[in-house]
């Protein structure tokens, strides 16, 4: 798992590459979210376009990120997930609780006036 961080206005964007699975990938994702929160970043969009697979630990990390960010008054969105990843999220019914958008423009728009 590789994570690249970039800014688009007030939004911090994480470009993930690799599988979001149990072990170092999930640990890295969680650490990066906490690092951003500690730095004061509260509007975060996660690009899943290069994530080809996620397991239950990856799903748990996504939900945990949402909880952590929203508890600090922030907003989180995931976007550009591949069909296989979308199916996994739908099967686990987490697509109903996570903000998942089709692309980066839709993700940024979903934050409203905070971007």
Protein described:
- With 115 residues, the protein is α/β, with parallel strands linked by helices.
- It has one domain: Transcription Regulator spoIIAA (2-Layer Sandwich).
- The protein has four helices and five strands.
- A five-stranded mixed sheet has the order 1-2-3-4-5.
- It is globular, with a radius of gyration of 13 Å.
- The mean pLDDT is 96.
Per DSSP E runs of 2 or more residues, the count of β-strands stands at 5
Number of helices: 4
Q: H/E order of the elements?
A: EEHEHEHEH
What is the arithmetic mean of pLDDT? 96
Which class best fits the helix and strand makeup? alpha/beta
Supply Rg: 13 Å
Classified in CATH, the superfamily is: STAS domain
CATH-defined fold name: Transcription Regulator spoIIAA
Low-confidence stretches: none
Helix content: 40-55%
Supply the CATH class. Alpha Beta
Distance between the termini: 27 Å
**Shape, please?**
globular
Strand fraction: 25-35%
How many independent structural domains? Answer: 1
